[in-house]
Design a protein that fits this description.
2 copies of one chain form a homodimer. Chain A has helices spanning 10-13, 20-31, 46-56, 77-85, 93-105, 153-172, 190-197, 226-230, 232-243, 255-266, 280-286, 304-311, 315-321, 326-337, 386-406, and strands at residues 3-8, 38-42, 62-66, 89-91, 119-121, 125-127, 136-141, 144-149, 178-186, 206-213, 216-224, 247-249, 270-274, 295-301, 344-356, 359-370, 374-382, 418-419. The first copy, chain A, has 420 residues and is an alpha/beta fold. The first copy, chain A, has 3 domains: 3-172, Molybdenum Cofactor Biosythetic Enzyme, Chain A (3-Layer(aba) Sandwich); 178-249, Alpha-Beta Plaits (2-Layer Sandwich), CATH 3.30.70.2860; 255-419, CinA-like (Maf protein).
């Protein structure tokens, strides 16, 4: 079965709205082992719609069309489809009745413009929409079924789950088993990972994909078919062995989510002190579900006076070691850990700009302290964009904590980050 | 000129990544008065890529292709393009040299897989990428120029701005004068804004658009042609009058950016204490450029012990008023302001869950203090998603500060937020 999607709407084509329906559908279908072949996005011009319906119906088997079913003039999916087949629009009596009933139940009269939403191409089969005023419909042109869905996300999603997926599963006998496993890595570039993993023999039916979610690379193992699915977990293990220390999560797509879950599972508390990371390190963890269960406090001390006052950093540390030193990071971590006797505290110092081999680079010190231990490192990163720099710092810090929670040495070598 | 975009990548087609590059491009082109006709998204299958290149090059004049230039096997844009033209891949000597030089400057040897990134179709013109290892290229097939760009967002954006737009402007003589003005609003829904603005007479050639960037609505006035551009600023003034208190910035797309600039311009310092907003309020301001010039400190006190220890909140406040009270927010703001005598401090209390009219809602108290003044309010918001709740809280707090900096009363009524 060749499946495609057509997204309509000027606001999506012109970028004023990011097309989250399309992304959601892709994921939903993939979970069912159904692959999408192509997605076409067009604006609200009638002739563009007519031509894309005619054109795509010659190569696809099923086309899910999204949007253009509203009551206003720029909603013209039904009209375009009728023209593409060469037939008229006919009022769908069932839907008109539903609309009138719904408005009456709200004590309102149906606005005239809504009647348009019951006009469907003559040969269309109506598709119910229990949560909105736009019904869906499906219609056959050339070799394809075109299946029309509303643009409103929650209406769209319900129609896909309750009507579209059951329709294609029964119509096209989709039964192939598929499975997806994701692994999150940190500290190694995509090309080096690929060089290493290329040496593995990957069983037929399993494909390896890479996705860069800076500063991470996510590795995806996708198994298609019963046989491939049956050897997926042993393939995952082989890949994990090759990844070694660069593997930072085999269940989450972010290190913050991984650390959040470990802290919750182990019932350990955490405090954070930061400076150059601008509160991003605490915030990224705090937005994870249930973070308030383990998170004690965070102090973002931007200037020196604030480090002295809020974190009790001594003049000696400033004068002898400086704001960018290991000593500073350790003192910040100790100070933020102490008041509530948190199990762990993480701290990141200010940054030092340094010239290494005639290139501008920056170094930053990161400390992790627990009741009885202190770990620290100074890393050296090329400074490109501030967000990138901040997420690398947070990732190194989270990874130190993750390894400590696992009982492993918190400090490892990341090939793409230099340690001083 | 007929312009189309082809987005490549299994992760985009399958929905694991939302295609923000496509949305960004649409907006960027619109600002230049250039309209996109169609967008096609395909996965990483060689035959799909070859056929979409061949097919679209028969109707478009320019096709921007995004993605598939990376070092790994699933990156196959160059190979597919070469096959679509019927020519071979040739190593681009300039680019290989650049890659080797770059790796050498990092003290590393170039991984073997990167060499692939210098293989371009024989007739391609290389397009420089000063910030990444994937060069772009352009190539002519049938009537179209196909212009290949990397998928990494910051590399993509820089290439579009510095190379793609200048190329199409010169090649296709795009000269129509266009101008765009954006206004950021807060506190009024899109349909109410539209009802109010519908009463204005907007000059021909100017279109009014709405874009929801929750919790804000951005209003865009787009002028096409010399005449429309000449009356844009007076139209903007009329719109601003209608917007009244709901206008929160006429130069920035976020309230944090607006407040950041005002604090910098006025040389005022700020500290923040937060709880239920999880550090998001401080972080959103701190990631703005030069925020360290005015930002003193932020304390994120998640639990009560931390409020007592770090913010010196008295037992009396806890017992008499509680963690969600106005008194708590004011005490937090005073406490975080005091150590460095900051000009302003903002604080947000914990949330209280309440039942209003048999619906679950939440209330939260927000305080702004300066050396001599205290302002505070308790707002009542329906609780849907936590991120939405947090950004509404931060927006109300920022807007209080913005109004104070302007010398206006910091507390106003927002139609879609209830005040207790």
């Amino acid at each position: 079965m060749k499946l495609e999607m057509i997204c309509t709407g000027e606001e999506i084509l012109a970028g004023q709205v990011v097309d989250t329906n399309a992304a959601w559908l892709g994921e939903r279908l993939m979970e069912q082992g159904i692959e999408m072949q192509r997605r076409v996005t067009v604006g609200d011009r009638l002739e563009d719609l007519v031509s894309v319906f005619q054109e795509r119906s010659q190569s696809a088997d099923v086309i899910l069309v999204n949007g253009g079913l509203g009551p206003t003039e720029d909603d013209m999916s039904a009209l375009a489809m009728a023209q593409a087949i060469g037939e008229g629009l006919v009022e769908c009596a069932v839907w008109i009745e539903r609309l009138e009933h719904w408005y009456a139940s709200q004590g309102r009269t149906m606005p005239a413009s809504n009647a348009k939403q019951a006009l469907l191409p003559a040969s269309a089969v109506m598709v119910d929409n229990p949560v909105g005023t736009a019904c869906g419909f499906r219609v056959k042109l050339n070799k394809a079924w075109l299946f029309f869905t509303p643009g409103v996300p929650h209406e769209f999603k319900q129609m896909v789950d309750e009507q579209f997926i059951p329709f294609i599963v029964s119509e096209y006998n989709v039964t192939e088993k598929t499975q997806l496993h994701k692994l999150l890595t940190f500290g190694v570039g995509e090309s080096s990972l690929a060089d290493d993993l290329d040496k593995l023999v990957i069983p037929e039916g399993i494909t390896l994909g890479y996705r860069s979610t800076m500063p991470h690379i996510e590795i995806k193992l996708f198994a298609r078919g019963e046989q491939a699915a049956s050897v997926l977990s042993e393939t995952v293990e082989k890949v994990k062995t090759v990844l070694g220390d660069s593997l930072v999560s085999d269940r989450h797509s972010s290190l913050a989510a991984e650390v959040n879950q470990r802290l919750l599972e182990q019932g350990k508390s955490l405090s954070i002190a930061e400076s150059c990371t601008m509160g991003g390190m605490a915030n990224e963890l705090l937005v994870q579900p249930n973070s308030a269960e383990y998170f004690h406090q965070a102090v973002i001390a931007i200037n020196d006076a604030s480090k002295k006052q809020l974190l009790n950093i001594t003049t000696e540390i400033f004068e002898k070691y400086g704001a960018t030193s290991i000593e500073m990071a350790v003192a910040m971590a100790r100070s933020v850990r102490q008041p509530l006797d948190s199990d762990y505290a993480l701290a990141i110092s200010d940054i030092a700009e340094v010239e290494v081999d005639r290139r501008q680079r920056i170094t930053v010190s990161i400390a992790l302290v627990s009741q009885n231990n202190v770990w620290h490192q100074t890393i050296d990163i090329p400074f490109r964009r501030p967000e990138m720099f901040r997420s690398i710092c947070a990732a190194v810090a989270y990874d130190m904590l993750r390894r400590a929670l696992l009982g492993s040495p918190p400090i490892v070598t990341y090939p793409f980050i230099r340690r001083c």
